[in-house]
């Protein structure tokens, strides 16, 4: 194991300013630790520019509101803080984690007067599944857990509590030799992987589960736009697991995963092909184009 995340050199932006990395701490009685009152984002910086940072910041505020949390900073302050972290840590290509949480002023289910804290950290993080796996396709098993109904959880928020079943699903998958796990939803429909949305190629068309009880990812939305601009028909619909037998290709999308081909989900096999290669290349090009445009305007 390399350097742990609590013992590193560098700086973290916390509650309005930069502090040394090792000093970014919270108390064991913080409300978020006991009641999952925490929301976060995952962002990527390419060549010094954070990809779609405005959308990520907007979603952070949306998630906080869903958990009845009022973030005490503006979007501009958060964006400026993000770039301050990148500059302080001398990072141009990095993964970024803004997180907001309830502190330790009150303990109990009701904690309306508890302070809302905000921290932003960044570190070097390459391809989520590794370079080789991203090219040849990853293997997933089915999770025993299901994404809940919108009537039971704030499913459209990027909230820490919603990732509990993701962690235990991914742990089981990794122990059994897989890269990740695929979850169904409460109705038995195909939902998503533990930290990424999923797409299937069926006879030249791209099919993806309707994001009505799980996160409609920022990368997911952009890849749909990219695919349609390149002439692919993209269909968002409810999908039953047995339909995967009809798919020739499969891929995941997400900030961490970017565009990653899949070669196996349980008993179903796929061959990464033209669509996967095209969208992987197009997404990488999209990142480059956005960065180039922003750099030129700077």
- Contiguous uncertain segments of 5+ residues: 294-298
CATH C-level name of the largest domain: Alpha Beta
Return the CATH topology of the largest domain: D-amino Acid Aminotransferase, Chain A, domain 2
Give the overall form: globular
Based on the structure given, which CATH architecture of the largest domain is correct?
A: Alpha-Beta Barrel
What is the averaged pLDDT score? 93
Report the order of strands and helices. Answer: EEHEEEHHEEHEHEEEEHEEEEH
Rg from Cα: 19 Å
Number of domains: 2
The number of helical segments is: 7
Largest beta-sheet characterization:
9 strands, mixed
Counting DSSP E segments of at least 2 residues, the number of strands comes to 16
**First and last CA, distance:** 40 Å
Can you say what the CATH homologous superfamily of the largest domain is? Answer: D-amino Acid Aminotransferase, subunit A, domain 2
* Fraction in beta strands: 25-35%
Q: Portion of residues in helices?
A: 25-40%
Protein described:
By secondary structure, this protein is of the alpha+beta class. The chain folds into 2 domains: 113 residues, D-amino Acid Aminotransferase, Chain A, domain 1, CATH 3.30.470; 157 residues, D-amino Acid Aminotransferase, Chain A, domain 2 (Alpha-Beta Barrel). The longest helix has 24 residues. The protein is globular. The chain starts with 10 loop residues before the first strand and ends with a helix.
Highlighted features:
globular, 2 domains, 29% helix, 298 residues, nine-stranded mixed beta sheet, D-amino Acid Aminotransferase, Chain A, domain 2, alpha+beta, 7 helices, D-amino Acid Aminotransferase, Chain A, domain 1, seven-stranded antiparallel beta sheet, disordered C terminus
């Amino acid at each position: 194991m390399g350097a742990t995340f609590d013992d590193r050199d560098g700086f973290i932006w916390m509650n309005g300013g930069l502090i040394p990395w090792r000093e970014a701490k919270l108390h064991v009685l913080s409300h978020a630790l006991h009641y999952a009152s925490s929301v976060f984002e995952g962002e990527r910086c390419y060549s010094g520019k954070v990809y779609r940072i405005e959308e990520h910041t907007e979603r952070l505020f949306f998630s906080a509101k869903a958990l009845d949390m009022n973030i005490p900073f503006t979007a501009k302050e958060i964006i400026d803080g993000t770039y301050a972290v990148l500059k302080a840590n001398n990072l141009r290509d990095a993964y970024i984690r803004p997180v907001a949480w309830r502190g330790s002023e009150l303990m109990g289910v009701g904690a309306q007067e508890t302070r809302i804290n905000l921290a932003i950290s960044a570190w070097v993080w390459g391809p989520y599944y590794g370079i080789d796996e991203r090219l040849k396709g990853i293997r997933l098993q089915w999770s025993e857990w299901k994404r809940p109904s919108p009537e039971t959880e704030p499913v459209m928020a990027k909230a820490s509590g919603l990732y509990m079943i993701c962690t235990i699903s991914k742990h089981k998958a990794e122990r059994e030799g897989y890269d990740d796990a695929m979850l169904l939803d409460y109705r038995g429909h195909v939902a998503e992987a533990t930290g990424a949305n999923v797409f299937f190629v069926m006879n030249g068309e791209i099919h993806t589960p309707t994001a009505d009880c799980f996160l409609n990812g920022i990368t997911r939305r952009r890849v749909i736009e990219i695919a349609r601009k390149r002439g692919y028909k993209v269909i968002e619909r409810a999908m039953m697991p047995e339909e995967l037998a009809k798919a020739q290709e499969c891929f995941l999308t997400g900030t961490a995963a970017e565009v990653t081909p899949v070669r196996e989900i349980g008993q179903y096999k796929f061959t990464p092909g033209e669509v996967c290669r095209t969208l992987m290349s197009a997404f990488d090009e999209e990142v480059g184009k956005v960065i180039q445009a922003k750099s030129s305007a700077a």
